[in-house]
Amino acid sequence: MSQQPFSRPGAYDLSALKRPASSSTPAGPPVAQSGGQPAGQSASTAGGGTAYSVSADEQNFQAVLEASMTAPVLLVFFSPSRMPESAQLAADMQTLSDEFEGRFLVGLVDVEAVPQIAQAMQIPSIPFVVAVVDGRPMPLFQDVAPIDQLRPALTQVAQQLTTQGITGRHQPRSTVVVDEEGVPAADPRYAAAQDALEEGDIDRAVAEYQKLVDANPADAEAAAGLAMAKLLQRTQGVDLQAARRAAADAPDDLDAQIMVADLDMLGGHVEDAFARLVEVVRRTSGDERTKARDHLVTLFGAVGNDDPRVLRGRQNLASALF
């Protein structure tokens, strides 16, 4: 790794981090091997982990580096006793990691607790921040800076990475955040969409969830929220009994069958909705079969792919298709 000093956040040359046209073995110094623990499971030494930060140790460091294959990782090397200001820098980077909503994963390395990591990464001084993209490290800056300087600096880094086609985002860590009373706190990313739903503004909820999905297509929770919001949007003002009569009178009317399936979903009859569309897939072909299948897959997403009803529904769909 280059030993070039970076005195303060400012103008960065990140051209060396541009994604190669073809994959190759990540370059960089040797690192400790993972003991199998997923990145993001240990609490932060700098004051508790957040959705997009993790305390790095020997067990999870390799996994933290591997997370850079999804989106950039910023490694923050600090020492609470030798330089308390560096611990404040680490805490500020944690705060900013949540503000950037997965654009970076911040890996916090307390060099007193895990000196071997700093040695392996050839860290010349404390504090030190290293950007890692696709497993390849590059020094970013080397000094304490207030959060008001860090924020625009990281914004600049994100913009440069975007121009180089590096646009991935990390998923939030599985750690559940609780409030002072121990109640799980709502994820602020979904607040605007959820507020819209509570206010009955379905169109705005769809728009808010769509923004989240556009920003991070891998966000399964946002995708599920979007699917459910669109379900509410499609069924607004529809009379259930009239829809059921229409579907019974015209069993080959695909739109009528889809509408009843949607209404069954809203009524909590998830398996009935799945079964109806599986049967439509079974007895149709061509464009109609494709439309029914795609709509069923959308309903799977609204429920959640880990739900046992979805697992059974997928099995039934596969049987109907093949």
Automatic annotation (TrEMBL):
Q: Which Pfam families match?
A: TPR_20 (PF14561)
Region (Disordered) spans which residues?
1-52
| Low complexity bias spans | 30-52
InterPro entries with a match to the protein in the record:
Thioredoxin-like_sf, TPR-like_helical_dom_sf
Q: Would you tell me the protein name for this molecule?
A: Tetratricopeptide repeat protein
Which organism was this protein described from?
Nocardioides jishulii
Tell me the organism's taxonomic lineage: Bacteria, Bacillati, Actinomycetota, Actinomycetes, Propionibacteriales
